[in-house]
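Researcher: Can you fold this with magnesium ion in place?
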Amino acid sequence: MTKTIALVVAAGRGSRFGAERPKQYTLLAGLPLLRHSLLRLSCHPEIDAVRVVIQPDDQADYEMAAAGLSLLTPVPGGATRQASVRLGLESLVSLQPDRVLIHDAARPFPSSQIISRLVAALDEWPGAIPALPVVDTLKRAQPDGLLQQGPDRSHLVRAQTPQAFSFGAILKAHRSLQSSDETDDAAVAEKAGVSVVTVSGEEENFKVTTADDLRRAENLATGFREFRTGLGYDVHAFSEGDFVTLCGVRIPHDRSLQGHSDADVGLHALTDALLGCIAAGDIGQHFPPSDPRWQGADSAEFLRHAAGLVTQAGGQVRHADITLICERPKIGPYRDAMRARIAELLDLDPGGVNIKATTTEGLGFTGRREGVAAQAVATVAFLT
Ligand code: MG
């Protein structure tokens, strides 16, 4: 099995757009700029692990950008970009990757297709970078602004990141060229005699450098959103007892709900709805009733697990709507507490959570007060 690791360079101080935070942590569509590329890299099926090179001063900002994602521990960078990459590469030696994709945090939109093209190119070459043709005519201007004859643009390309390399080749190149200060890794590779091929880059994979770039990125990021909806349904029967747990709230009652866990039908239905949004099966597959670990479990744990999977899949839970179906207990007095608890578990504004209750007019098993049913619908936004 080939092991491919993505190394994201986020140690620069960069331009700050007048904000307090370094550029890579500036908010873009509500998420730190760095998080956009981390989501894309960490969700890609051909990337096994992601490590970020940071400035130790930025630890708190980094943690916000990386929250909920499954990443390797970040490592501190050096004085220049090239030094930061070298330190990042050295930190990966013990993990023995075959390939590495080196990416600049300032490019928030490396597409899944670019990553696949790079990985495929490494089957034949020790290095590959995404590149675009130069479409504008290039001119050479004198200091006074007067034009001289321009260079021939026909062989010029614009280099982007991620830049992909055989790990051994790029590590050796960086070790042998420590005194130089190149602006990208392809230049380090070329100087060390490593062949680098180009694959098609994409205009959307641009580098955010100016305030104009940030506005363009903001427009793109909002346009990239895709919404998915998941549905959940659950039933538990009443048994002897004196309380029930519904939507994470304990309610005194003359019966209890029977189940392997705490039998919280509301949270079970919602957990299934979240799993539905990421096509991850159902709650029984993730928490088999046959597993003694879930005996009497707090269903909040199931919901948190599903929410964690949503985050790892690049999603953001936006809304949850739950209907509890029973004659008793009365749900109304507990509705606000339920909303608050679910909002807390999903890290959502309570305005994004709705609890409804209905009876079935005495009909069916809920009407006969044999149990409680729940339906849930969840909406998740994805950066595509
Ligand atoms: Mg259940």
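Model: Folded with magnesium ion in place. The chain has two domains: 4-209, 225-383.
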